[in-house]
Amino acid sequence: MRALLEWFNVPSTDRKRRGVSPWTYISLSIFAFLSVFPLYWLFVVASNSNEEISKIPPSLVPGKNFLKQLAAVNEAVPLGRALINTTLVSLAVAVFQVFFCTMAGYAYAKLAFPGKKSSLVVIIGTMMLPAQLGIVVLYLMMANYLNWINDFKALVVPAMVGAFGVFWMRQIIDAQVPNEIIEAAKIDGGKNFRIYRSVVVPIIMPSALVLGLFSFLGTWNDFLWPSLVLNDPNRFTVQVAVNQLNGTYTIDYALKMCGAFMATLPLLVLFIFVGKRLVTGIMDGAVKG
Amino acid sequence: MSITRKKKSLDPKHIDDKWGLAYVSPFFLIFGAFGLIPIVFTVYVSFFSWDPLAGHDFTGLQNFRWLFTDPYFYIAVRNTFSIFLISFVPQTILALVIAVKLANPKLKFKVFWRTVLLVPWVTSILSVAIIFSQIFGQDYGMVNVAMHYLGLSHVGIGPINWVGQTIPSHIAIASMIIYRNLGYASLIYLSSILSIPRDLYESAELDGASKRQQFFYVTIPQLKNTLIFMLIVGTIGGLQTFLEPLTYGGVQGGDSRQFSTLALYLYEQIIINNKFGYAAAIGVAITMITIVISGLNYVVTKRLSGGES
Predict the structure, then answer these.
(1) Collapsed DSSP state (helix, strand, coil) of residue B49
(2) What global pTM score does this model have?
(3) Is ipTM over 0.90?
(4) What keyword terms does UniProt attach to this protein (chain A) (predicted)?
(5) Which of A1, A4, A8, A166 should be substituted to probe chain B, the one whose Cβ sees the most B Cβ atoms within 10 Å?
């Protein structure tokens, strides 16, 4: 019980004398282990046969079947194609999001235009609505009017802008770009768009990149929308492809988890390079006290 | 917003009417066409019997009348709330515990802990749901096997049917949600804790407050806004839970709909039944529930904090 109470430790001046309690490291290690273990387990199942996993106790180390499973996955769905599709679509969304949201965020933070305040209220309002609300009509638009079923435009165009992105960029520009800098650039004879490009954009680049990363991850991992507008296997994104991996009679977990592993691996590799930046981005975006 | 800043933005030197519109218009066009119009028209479609192949008829409030007498709808409401509570409450407690640990200024390997806890968040919901479906499997799933080895079978707790039974299935789905969101929530709380003025703790300590008291009387009240924010964001997210139950037990959310959720029920209407009007009505219902709960959150938390001070 005492240990449990210790969990609610608060950093205090006391710490200066005692340092960090071992409980802190033990509990953090447990959470770190729990964060990583399911992904390790994903690879264990993906590289073993179903029999190895169904043993009691199950095998806890990777097996030798990974390439065999991968071939089976590829036979069921065009996984390589799906990975390329997903990469292209996610990159496109990320680039457009950064481009349009920083521009609109700049206007909301530093410029004037009619309807500025009321439109911002609407944007924030849509952030409170569930994503499923618009999806029914969006699908009908794609199917009946635009003919974008099985077209990547259906994935990219609606996702090119976002309420969150604009709102966030507005906050960032408001906080990080002082009016004085813009004024100084104007006095030096800078034209409006040039000021934006060569003064504002460099300052907010780190945050804009985090927005791009968020968009990339969100698009890569989205399932609901792509599963509605894609039914041609050659157009599948990787999430839709993995979802198709079902055994004939029972769930073939080795197969499914091999697909899921391949869908996750690129993000884990990316995370090695950008994880720190994501942490900073999330903490900067958090509401304070 | 401070008064000085307001003055600045009203200063004519900073106003550039010609250009503002040029910067926002691409956003307005795309957001209007693919964000706002679908939202408004979904409300319109909810008054129709709408089949993309068979056409549509205006039926007034018929969809909503059906909805309110539809037992599957109420099952979905119950499951959605049950899964939300079973995931949100433990997640918040654990995230606060982790955040307090991470906020310790003397903690070593800060960046490592923060980063490693965020790993699940980059994993897709689908992958998480597939992994946990396997872990919670009836016969060979790791949870049941571990329970067996811990000797629980000797005290009468046999292998649990994590899919077939209602509450166990909700726990399994909630664990997927917690797994993916815990690190993210911890970082948000950490960020807020780090912005609490240190002297509040110092004076609490001088007053003889124990660490536990400091947590409950300094940290928690200072985190009030963040907690409200996370509760609202969590409610919105919780009401959209869909892919976890879909992966766990198919589009009906289990054989007897024991873990069917509202968003999954909406998906079922589109994918299986082609009832777009009914799906739109479910979407409107999800939105109404979101708004009511967010309003309640707001009123209740305001009351509580008003009573305290």
Answers:
(1) strand
(2) 0.88
(3) no
(4) Cell membrane, Membrane, Transmembrane, Transmembrane helix, Transport
(5) A8
